[in-house]
Every structure is written in C-alpha cells, then in structure tokens.
Amino acid sequence: MTFKLPTLPFANNALEPWYDENTVIIHHTKHHQAYTDNLNKAIEEAKLEVNSIEDLLINVNDVDPQFRTRIINHGGGYYNHNFFWESLAPNASSKASETLIAAIEKKWASFDAFKEEFSAKALGHFGSGWAWLVLNKDKELEIIDTHDQVCPLTLGYQPLLTIDVWEHAYYIKYQNRRAEWISAFWNLVNYERVEERLNTALSK
Questions:
Q1: Torsion sign (Cα): 185, 187, 189, 190
Q2: Can you tell me whether residue 200 is helix, strand or coil?
C-alpha cells in the first residue's frame, strides 16, 4: 500500500486570520509531504503488508525493531497531520453541539474548564509534539500529550481532537508565542468532526 498526501479539506487561505496561508502551504506541502514520502520508503524497505495507517500504528510493536522507530515517526507524522487538518474548519463561528458539550461536561466542570485544561496541556508540552482529546480504553474522555510524532492509537487511545505544537505548525505567524497559537486554534475547531469521532469510538 502506498500512501498519498491528502488534499486539504479547505482552501489554503480559508483559515485566515487565525492560521495564515503561508503556514498552511508549508506545513502541508513540505512537512506533511515529507512524512508521507518517508513513510512509504520505510514500508518498502521493511517489506510490510499494510492495510491501513490505523492498523499499522495500532500494531507497530509487531514491526521489526530495526524499522519500528521510522514507522512510529513517519507513520505517526502522516496520520497525526491527516487528523489535524480534519480537526480544523474555516468557519470561525463554529460551535460545539449540545450533545458534545454534554459529553465533555460529564468529565469536566464545564466546557470552558475543558478548553482551559486542553490549552494548558498544549502550552505546557515540552518540545515538539501534540495535545489530544482522546477516549481511553474505559470509554472515558481524557486529555493527553504525545512527544514528537507518537500517535495515540499506538498507546491504545481513540483520538478525537488534536493541536499541533511543533514549532513548524505556528512559527511563521506566531514565532515563539505558542499561547497565541493555542488561543487562535479554538476559533478553528471542527466540532462536528469531533462529535462524529466520539460517536464512532463509543460505538466500537
């Protein structure tokens, strides 16, 4: 199986002013493309039979150790970026549905409390990585962070929402001001997609 760089679900400038066109283009066509290319090379060299990126990452511990780190890095980079782009929507007025809000308020005192904890996790992450809203093995919501390109699927979680806090994800517009990028991110969250992911994960 050969993986291809997916087409973005929006125009390059559709996330303005929160996420600038230049960053979107470089992030997608340079960084995401590199993970795609390197994943395909690793799969070819390891002579792996791959059914899906999800299956590969869930079962990555079965991969020959000499190729495993490359699959974690590039497979995770490919999947995580796919997931990230699908987590964003150009409609800055997008709001969470009552159903999603109710699910989140079961875990946190309020939707704002969830956003504060998620933002704190993203801001406090040291170095390169991601913050995630996930469903754990007990079908409970959690906020976690992962380093570099480690994917929650590999750790046994079902991801629902993510923010990329690698510097390449925000440095052109926000420089070292990660807090500003995180604040802007909340204007772009595709809550409809988050709810779809939650319903799918709960049905398994």
A1: negative
A2: helix
CB atoms within 10 A of CB 114: 19
For the chain, residues classed under CATH 3.55.40.20 are 98-203
CATH number for the segment(s) 98-203: 3.55.40.20
Q: Which CATH architecture has domain 21-86?
A: Orthogonal Bundle (1.10)
**Which tens digits make up the pLDDT trace of 178-202?**
999 999 999 999 999 999 999 999 9
Q: pTM here? A: 0.95
Cα 122 to the center of its chain, rounded Å:
12
Q: Which two tokens stand for residue 159?
A: 């991801």
In order, the DSSP letters of 74-113 are IIHHHHHHHHHHHTB-S-TT----HHHHHHHHHHSSSHHH
